[in-house]
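Researcher: Next entry in the queue.
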Amino acid sequence: MDHRLSTKHMNILSIIFWVIFVAPFVAFLIWLMRQDKRRGAVGLWVLAILVVVAIVYMYWKTQGQ
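Model: Structure for this entry, 65 residues:
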């Protein structure tokens, strides 16, 4: 019996990870950066770039699966 996780299960685990860890973390960072009125815009741009880079890296490492 093969105990490796199928691609479907890995996709579900990936979605769970994004919902439980990444989304609240990003929301917290946005809230934290908006508290700083002087640097809030720069921080939001940096956060947006980091999220895009993370998503591109994830797809690159998983070959789009």
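Model: The chain has a mean pLDDT of 75.
Researcher: Noted, moving on.
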